[in-house]
Amino acid sequence: MGLRQQSVVASINIAEAIALGWPIVDVRSPKEFNQGHIPNAINISLFSDNERAQVGTIYKQQSKEAAIELGYTFVNPKLENFISQAQQLAPNKQIIIHCWRGGMRSQSFAQHLSENGFSNVKVVSGGYKAYRNYVLQNLANPVPIKLLGGYTGSGKTYILQELEKRGHQILDLEGLAHHKGSAFGGIGQAEQPTSEQFENFLLGEIQNLDLSKPVWVEDESYSIGSVNVPKQFHQQMRNAKLIFIDIPKEERAKHLVEEYANVGDNQLAESILKLSKRLGGVGVKTALDLLKQHNYFEVALLSLQYYDKLYTKGKNRRSNEDMTVLQLTTTNHHENALTLEKLKTHE
């Protein structure tokens, strides 16, 4: 039997879908899915990107009915594979389906599963569009942020990870963005998500937290590489009191050498060139010459001249009442996490 929408499968809203914890199947095209999706959802596409484009063209140039018929010709050969993939994903036959707006794609797919042994199939009402509204609404909710700042090379991410090991709650924005924030921040990282997907990931992490307790967050600019922090959450960061750790430049340069010296000079050179406008032609040439000499420590010191000025500007925009400056002597994240743990100023 071909894929045909014959009856309406039971719908649930996005909050109910997330609360159920069942496997979620996103039947949109790969391009749609890659732009943004519900975290942990699995993409079983009804149409490839090319097929979806063809259906859209026929819809515009001919009619809705002609587009639907073309869609069936694309989908029908895939029906057995759809069942096989769904069975692997949900062996207990409980599964949630969604498309862009909860329309024909998800309803047809869900109906097909229901007719082939799946005992409990739900469709997300409003689809991914409803989920995006849900994300944006919930990202406006307050989070009890404890903001950790400090100059480049302070090892702030490692401190957060150590605090998490010690039982504290954290949000690792750089981890979610697959980028460490500086011109060198993309080295060794996976491809960055879209800003849309970053927002989806961020809400998923927030919903796993106990918001009656503080949450440590690293101070970030609005952009982390190519990813933008959602405005409403970034404003909460700006409103939070800041603990700024001040570690000697030489110690931070040593930390950067440990972090980046083994990644390859070509990648480091590409990152230095990204600082051309900031370091100037002479500064970039000096840094590249030092790199050729494998003098990584001096390269790090030179880069810190720019980044320290940048961070100082941001630091100076805050009032003393909104910030505690903590003088530390080392980048040892174990020691520094312990020091922060003992700090009661922002409890």
The percentage helix is 40-55%
Count of alpha and pi helical runs: 16
CATH topology of the largest domain: Rossmann fold
Structural class designation = alpha/beta
Number of domains: 2
CATH class of the largest domain, anyone? Alpha Beta
User: How can the largest sheet be summarized?
Assistant: 5 strands, parallel
The largest sheet has its strands arranged as: 1-5-4-2-3
Rounded to an integer, what's the Rg over CA atoms?
A: 25 Å
What portion of the residues fall into strands of 2 or more residues?
A: 5-15%
| Number of DSSP E strands | 12
Written account of the structure:
This protein has 347 residues and is of the alpha/beta class. The protein has two domains: 11-136, Rhodanese-like domain (Oxidized Rhodanese, domain 1, 3-Layer(aba) Sandwich), CATH 3.40.250.10; 143-342, Rossmann fold, CATH 3.40.50. It is built from 16 helices and twelve strands. The chain has helices at residues 14-20, 30-35, 49-61, 64-75, 79-89, 104-114, 127-138, 156-165, 173-177, 195-206, 231-239, 249-260, 265-273, 276-292, 296-316, 333-342; strands spanning 11-12, 24-26, 42-43, 94-98, 120-124, 145-150, 169-171, 215-218, 223-224, 227-228, 242-246, 323-327. A five-stranded parallel β-sheet has the order 1-5-4-2-3. Strands 7-8-6-11-12 form a five-stranded parallel β-sheet, sandwiched between helices. A two-stranded antiparallel ribbon has the order 9-10. α8 (156-165) crosses α16 (333-342) and α13 (265-273) runs antiparallel to α14 (276-292). It is elongated and about 70 Å long. It starts with 10 loop residues before the first strand and ends in a 5-residue tail after the last helix.
